[in-house]
Amino acid sequence: MLLLFCVLFGYIYIYIFRIRKKLQFLLVYYSSGGLLAYADSNTNGAKSISVQCQNETQKKKVVVLGTGWASTSFLKDLDISSYDVQVVSPRNYFAFTPLLPSVTCGTVEARSIVEPVRNIIKKRNGEIKFWEAECLKIDPENKKVLCRSNIDENLAGSNEFCLDFDYLVIAIGAQVNTFDTPGVLEHCLFLKEVEDAQRIRRTVIDCFEKAVLPELTEEERKTNLHFVIVGGGPTGVEFAAELHDFIHEDLVKIYPSVKDLVSITLIQSGDHILNTFDERISSFAEQKFQRDGIEVLTGHRVMSVSQRMINMKTRSKGEDISIPHGMVVWSTGVGTRPVVKDFMEQIGQGNRRVLATDEWLKVKGLDDIYALGDCATVDQKKIMASSFNSFMFTSILILQEDISAIFKAADKDNSGTLTIEEFIDVVEDVVIRYPQVELHLKSKHLFEVTDLLKDVDGSDREEIDIEGFKLALSHVDKQTKSLPATAQVAVQQGAYLSMCFNKREKCKSEPEGPRKFRSGGRHEFRPFRYRHLGQFAPLGGEQAAAELPGDWVSMGRSTQWLWYSIYASKQVSWRTRFLVIGDWGRRFIFGRDSSRI
Amino acid sequence: MLLLFCVLFGYIYIYIFRIRKKLQFLLVYYSSGGLLAYADSNTNGAKSISVQCQNETQKKKVVVLGTGWASTSFLKDLDISSYDVQVVSPRNYFAFTPLLPSVTCGTVEARSIVEPVRNIIKKRNGEIKFWEAECLKIDPENKKVLCRSNIDENLAGSNEFCLDFDYLVIAIGAQVNTFDTPGVLEHCLFLKEVEDAQRIRRTVIDCFEKAVLPELTEEERKTNLHFVIVGGGPTGVEFAAELHDFIHEDLVKIYPSVKDLVSITLIQSGDHILNTFDERISSFAEQKFQRDGIEVLTGHRVMSVSQRMINMKTRSKGEDISIPHGMVVWSTGVGTRPVVKDFMEQIGQGNRRVLATDEWLKVKGLDDIYALGDCATVDQKKIMASSFNSFMFTSILILQEDISAIFKAADKDNSGTLTIEEFIDVVEDVVIRYPQVELHLKSKHLFEVTDLLKDVDGSDREEIDIEGFKLALSHVDKQTKSLPATAQVAVQQGAYLSMCFNKREKCKSEPEGPRKFRSGGRHEFRPFRYRHLGQFAPLGGEQAAAELPGDWVSMGRSTQWLWYSIYASKQVSWRTRFLVIGDWGRRFIFGRDSSRI
Hints:
The structure is a homodimer. By secondary structure, chain A is of the alpha/beta class.
């Protein structure tokens, strides 16, 4: 046995040692998408340093807050030859958050889904600086951010510092939204950070260890083994499924005495779980959960949570219901972080729920501050309503409607009516500037924008006046939707913003955005446009549901395989990819670990 | 890329799914060392339950405290058909403690070295019960232990419970020994539990993250990056080596700005580090550390530790030295846990440092309570000194010496002198009962016990009187040594005790132990005898030193390979074995992770 290991290990050791260098090289190659000019940077070392110093004085300072999806996606493609970049975040790692529900039950280990930020930015030749600290205050007037490290005070040196910026990118994500429900912060667990997932894992084990102790009544054991999930969105549903699998595949085997006392309840205020998904997926999930014995309480609103009870009201009859619980996981919506709230008050957005940006991801009313990911929302300009402009404690109501400006700009001969030709001349810019127009056409099954100008009978018109124009576009704004708080949106926003940053100089002279109808000229960049690539909902028992591009819906075992493949390929590094796949394999063979660490 | 993953994963999935059952079967086979009679237990289910119930009333209750090396080794081989076993421990897992230093730096993950206790006892057909709780009080008079679960009070049911026992096995290990040095508990990290190792890992990253923050002076950065280890034993030395590797192989690459400010200091009160090892190993380690830039301060005694400073005194000149630190890891000796301290006071061992047992691992003066592993020490009976017997608050000093009793028992003809024949008749029992005799012979390079009876000139004697006999054995007791607090001792003790438990009934009628010289008759069992199998000291940089059986000493790279093989083969389950080997492989390819989680 020993000898076998000795020999085996010796071989593996030698082999790995030999191919290590080669592998590292390959990994760098793959990760960065091409060969890095290593030799180059070495031979011209002295020269490049002097060039760098010269550049640095001219470089604009970019401060990025956060190390989540939006921020890493922004940093990945940013051309650092023209910017001096500093990143601030209390987490020195990037976490692959879609796998958090898997971490709660040990299907995947916490370390397998995180990648140190310094590893990510190291690939950019060390020119990006990272500080592990929390941003306490954003000062848009003086262009400064105040930061404080969360590290224990017992290390030498001050924990606070200030950073100047020319451009600020706010991508600090969101915090949990309790909707001010009493007792939630004190008695519920959440699923936003890696630590949350680890805490849930420990608590599940605690509930079982407590339930099997001697001298407990059957009722007490049942209470401790009642797991409640509040929120029927993708995260809540995936967690419920993972928990069910963990309990029924692993825990009942080692806690056989209490296996019949376990129950899982999923509470959803709406009529269906997964209500952002296609109806077929939603009902497939509900049926699967029913078969699995997961109780789904739709139309129930949680009123308060106490140490041992969760209190609800049914939406239909207004009845009050209280059920005892061992653990409650709260997974409903996103809330604004205090530093963003404070910033919003400073810039006159205090009465809004979420920080608003324009379609170029610029914070409304500010010039050099951008916000992306879960901490902000793109406030899509309406074509009909009067626009509202706010800047630094002052707000000016501009009464002029966008549609009038468009009409005026299009009506070149000032005839008071638009011909089809005149309309076609502006239509591309209109579609780029107001994406709701395209969505409206799609919803009405129209193929050409000019179809909008047809009269009520559907016949073509030669000309249209301002009232007719308004009537034609009157329902367009209904199609403005705020983007979901998902990794997909954040990644696309990050990539979009880095592209804007990279061609900032070029686009100053050669603007590529749509026409400014009111002030004339063109926007520098095309506005951000979100492209939905579909979404997954793993439902446990090796089954998943997915909405795929082109309105495809896929459900069952094969979808779970697709999920495995996509999630493996989307990993941020080869290291995490190997680890995650290794974890899946380990789970298949050995099951999930139930040690309370 | 995606397709590749899809296909690859599909294949792996199917393959694993097919061989899963087979694998699980094989693992059970390997782990338990043979096939379990699964089919048997199923077909005769009803019958076996009734038999079981009948048995249970007759079964003696054994309570085992602890889930460390001693306890799991005891449980592994215990014949549970004759005992009703309950295990109590605040940790629901067994930890492979020799790999803790590797966990501190992420060479191996914490989860890879732990195995749930329930997995270990599951293999015993679920007849062993486990409670995750801490033992608060041992009541030897009423044969009860009071336990309390450490789980948060917010779960339903009482956390306290009482267990009755017929036999109690105390194997709860030791806690850290601060030698009452001020500030150690508050400002130092330890290396006894898995959580300690995880805390060290986070702290090392904290020190680096803090040191690179802006607005710190060079002095402050240096202070934060000064890592101090107190204690030059195997654990302290291995940790220093691991830390050095972690810093120089991984951290300096991602914190390049501070790489020249890092320092590691190892403080040892004795003259050499690794002073329980062979001198060659000790000096090899010192030389290696010197080359690596690890400062070794021998002959320094730590007087106190404060938030930023560690204060020492040199042993030679009595000078006071204070050095600033970023982190101190305290790794010196073992101390007694409060519950054991309290128990010792109850049984009149209050003035002792460690709980004392006899050579049969029975707590001195008690009949049915055993103690093994780090929480106890075997008080080797001396052949010359007067024996001291204590029982429940009363102590009786027996003035008669063992050697006189031996002489009396051997002198069958009551002639007042022993002939060689008479001596040979008792010698086997003497050697078994007093292992120091054999050690003495070895140290004097004597081959036969009868050589002891030779006169001062080395000539054989026909007869020997009581004074001559005492003179011959006068130096024997110098060879009694207390056993080291290692996993090896604990495992051997656990295995020994389970063997005693298994043949308790048989040995009552057919005692197999040595002769009782004073009271006549025989001891039921042979006393516990420790067999030293050697020890390792990994020194970093793929080098290790080892003392092997037969006084062999091995140092260098090949020893590290041997270390890998032995540590892999010694893993408690196939799961941890695969995980640990996987972790080593991952470290070779990708390095260690520096995410602060």
